[in-house]
Specification:
single chain; mainly alpha; 0% strand
């Protein structure tokens, strides 16, 4: 350990069981967050509970130097999180917005906990080691998937670009350590890790990540060269990175070549994000000052989405634009202010020759990791994923810790100061709220998984009971309520006897509850229409006023579902089929044709949609249109088969 670092650590400070528990909980939080993919709520619950546990340990046993200007960016980051909470108050779907609110908490809370616990270099080493271990394991897994199973390298969450973004800080840490390490064996190990991370990013194919990686490496190399580190090892590191990129370029999707072409001709870049931004900017024009509600972008965006947008349409692929839409203009302003302050304070220390060059190199490395993810967020959605928020939080805490360590005006006595008792009590009381939230999220997620397993085995009664338990655990989640109604609908259709009227009314009440909880979701209207069409309409005499009134209501419910989301295939398909049953052939075909230009995920319903449209085209005498659609149908079926094989 450098003497400059030893001078800042009192003799009576040692690694304690609390430090070990903190590192273990942070590792569990990151690992769990990696397995959370918007459908595994139990992993989100475990990640949140682990982070809450680490936060509590940091509050009880961590040390601080008191208020220091270096902590100002963290205070501003907490203000940003607080603003997300204020925007949640205005949200029309509180439960969804609360999910975003508590996810964003991963960043400031992880940063605060990290800052408190890094009063010993061995704790810092253990924390970094756990990050290296987890990310390296996933990188090796990704390479195996790429070479053995011919699949795009990714973790078990989000998409390949976010997975690549998660690797950038580790690549920077490994690169710096390969130069600053004192033992040759360590240098070689970190060189190998650097090559592995760079190669994995290269075969990933994310041009934006490669650009951010190049900028970060350029800054780190410039610092190491100016501060007179071994030119031989710098040359070795540069060669390792270059060869890894070249190997990745020839092995993977030629991302390096494409990135170079973007520099030469910006117009050659993929226009997919420009289409998303075009629709998102239209949505931004109609956004109130407090935003549409955190986490609600995907529900509001569908009305503005262009047919050319082939994305899944969950994110704007620009976090700052999405925060503007979801939480109003103060959200990106406060977020960028926090990052800018941190960059300014860090620059003052990095370019100052006083202090250990190792400490300044560590500061720059952590800052570049944080900056690379923040920069990549201009083209992605890193600030909405708990795993990346947790990584950024740790980096944020490392930067502040290094800034304080480099400030020679701080003395050793202040280093040992713990938070005051009133502060600790307040923070512990506040920590109970996310603990309860994540406990309920995890519990409801487990019930949901159980329901899905029963559903796969066609045990619909058991599936309904489990989904009902999920709705009891998270009563504010509209998804569970309309899912119970959907399961009842499947069960009632399979039964030979007429449905129980009380159960039918209960299913309709569930849909009303779901719509009250989230008026933006199209599913309750579609389910309501299907239930009324299947079980109530046949009981009425055709041509009667009651029959016509109910038929108009059913059509209205389908239309409402489509108005909420014009890209919702289910509502469009069932509305068209409803119209065709009434011999309204022209209207039914028009409804089907209107949806043919929109992008959908391939599923069995997509196949039925194509098949029905093709048949109506044939009946209408459009033979060329029929044959064209049958070709698309063959492609859709093949894609579904490939997806099932994977």
């Amino acid at each position: 350990m450098p003497k400059s670092m030893r001078a800042l650590i009192p003799d009576n400070v040692s690694v304690t069981p609390s430090s070990a528990c903190f590192v273990a909980l942070m590792a569990i939080a990151l690992l769990s967050a990696l397995f959370y993919g918007k459908v595994n709520a139990e992993y989100l619950g475990l990640a949140g509970l682990s982070l809450t546990g680490a936060f509590v340990i940091a509050v009880l046993t961590g040390r601080t130097r008191g208020f220091h200007k270096s902590t100002t960016p963290l205070i501003v980051m907490f203000v940003f999180w607080g603003w997300i909470g204020i925007a949640t108050i205005y949200s029309p779907a509180t439960f969804v917005s609360l999910g975003t609110f508590w996810s964003v908490a991963f960043l400031p809370c992880a940063a605060f906990a990290t800052m408190l616990m890094l009063h010993d270099s061995r704790t810092e080493t253990a924390l970094k080691f756990s990050l290296f271990l987890i990310i390296t394991a996933f990188v090796i897994y990704a390479c195996i998937m790429f070479f053995v199973f011919d699949m795009t390298p990714r973790a078990t969450f989000a998409n390949k670009n976010n997975f690549a973004a998660l690797q950038m800080p580790m690549a920077f840490f490994a690169a710096t350590a390969s130069i600053t390490a004192t033992r040759t064996a360590y240098k070689v190990i970190f060189l190998a890790l650097t090559g592995l991370f760079v190669f994995s990013v290269g075969i990933n194919g994310s041009r934006a990540v490669i650009l951010c990686l190049a900028i970060g490496f350029a800054a780190i190399f410039a610092f190491l060269f100016i501060n007179k580190w071994s030119k031989r090892w710098l040359a070795t590191l540069a060669t390792t990175i270059f060869l890894s990129l070249v190997l990745a370029n020839f092995t993977g999707p030629s991302a390096i070549k494409e990135t170079s072409e973007v520099f030469i001709s910006p117009s050659s870049s993929d226009s997919g994000r420009f289409v998303i931004w075009e629709g998102s900017l239209e949505l931004a024009k109609d956004t109130p000052w407090h935003g549409t509600g955190p986490g609600l972008f995907f529900l509001n965006y569908s009305k503005y989405r262009l047919d050319e947008d082939k994305s899944a349409a969950f994110y704007a692929h620009n976090d700052y634009l999405q925060f503007f839409i979801e939480a109003g203009w103060p959200a990106p302003f406060i977020l960028l202010a926090s990052l800018a302050l941190l960059a300014v304070f860090s620059a003052q220390k990095i370019f100052h020759t006083d202090g250990s060059r190792i400490q300044r190199a560590d500061l720059l490395t952590a800052l570049m990791g944080l900056g690379a993810i923040a920069g990549h967020s201009l083209l992605s959605f890193n600030f909405f994923l708990p795993s990346l928020l947790l990584m950024m939080g740790v980096l944020f805490g490392l930067v502040i810790h290094r800034l304080e360590a480099l400030d020679g005006q701080q003395n050793n006595a202040k280093l040992q100061r713990r938070l005051s008792l009133p502060t600790r009590i307040v923070l512990l009381v506040l920590a109970s709220s996310p603990a309860l939230f994540y406990f309920d999220i995890g519990r409801s997620g487990l019930y949901q998984k159980q329901a899905e397993a029963y559903r796969a085995e066609d045990q619909l009664t058991a599936a309904m009971e489990s989904m009902d338990e999920a709705s009891s655990a998270s009563p504010g989640a509209d998804y569970y309520h309309y899912s119970v109604a959907g399961l009842w609908f499947l069960k009632a259709r399979q039964s030979e006897a007429p449905p129980n009227s009380a159960e039918l009314e209960e299913a309709l009440e569930r849909l009303e509850t779901a719509e009250d909880l989230n008026p933006l979701r199209p599913h309750p209207n579609m389910f309501r229409a299907r239930i009324l069409e299947t079980f109530k309409l046949p009981q009425l005499e055709a041509g009667s006023s009651e029959h016509d009134r109910l038929a108009a209501l059913i059509e209205s419910e389908y239309m409402k579902s489509m108005e909420k989301n014009p890209f919702y295939l289910d509502a469009r398909f069932y509305l068209a089929r409803f119209l065709l049953k009434q011999n309204r052939i022209e209207e039914g075909l028009k409804t089907l044709e209107k949806g043919m230009g929109k992008p959908y995920l391939y599923s069995p319903l997509t196949v039925n949609y194509y098949r029905l449209t093709a048949e109506i085209r044939r009946i209408s005498g459009d033979q060329a249109g029929y044959e064209s659609l049958m070709e698309q149908l063959t492609t859709a079926v093949e894609k579904i088969r490939r997806k099932r094989r994977k």
